[in-house]
Amino acid sequence: MSVAFRNVDVPPRTPVRAWPYEAIAATIERGSIRDWAILTREIRRDPWGPVARQVEEVLSYQRPPGLTALLERAITAARSETECDERAAVAREVDDLVRRSGLTLAAFAERIGTSASRMSTYRSCRVTPSAALLLRMRRTTERLEAERS
């Protein structure tokens, strides 16, 4: 798609993430549904990336009726979905670390300084462990694997 509004001219095949800020602002202000769909696809691809941030910035001072809610929902939904995927990935990693450790859940939990019930919440994705605890889990598993070798 080519964006040509005001003094902004973006060649066809230019990825949205390479558009200048003015092109994002012009697309929001004067674009069509097709143009806005391009923005929302990029927001879904990278919910905290530069395009999402630029859209948020434009919407902070320019609030087109209807479109504002649509773009804000697109950002919120993309971030929520990504966060859910990330929590699930952490839960899978915790599960894998427990399995690779060769210990029971209770023994692994004790080894890292927590309870078996807390470990269950990490493995089921109800709670996400802190970064420090995740590192402790990794180090404990690596140490146990090295001891078996």
> What's the shape?
elongated
Helix content: 55-70%
Low-confidence spans: none
For the sheet with most strands, the description reads: 2 strands, antiparallel
Query: H/E series, N to C?
Result: EEHHHHHHH
Spatial order of the strands in the main sheet? 1-2
- The pLDDT mean sits at 93
Q: Would you give the CATH topology of the largest domain?
A: 434 Repressor (Amino-terminal Domain)
CATH architecture annotation name of the largest domain = Orthogonal Bundle
Total number of domains: 2
**What fraction of the residues are assigned to beta strands by DSSP?**
under 5%
The end-to-end distance, rounded to whole angstroms, is: 56 Å
The CATH class of the largest domain is Mainly Alpha
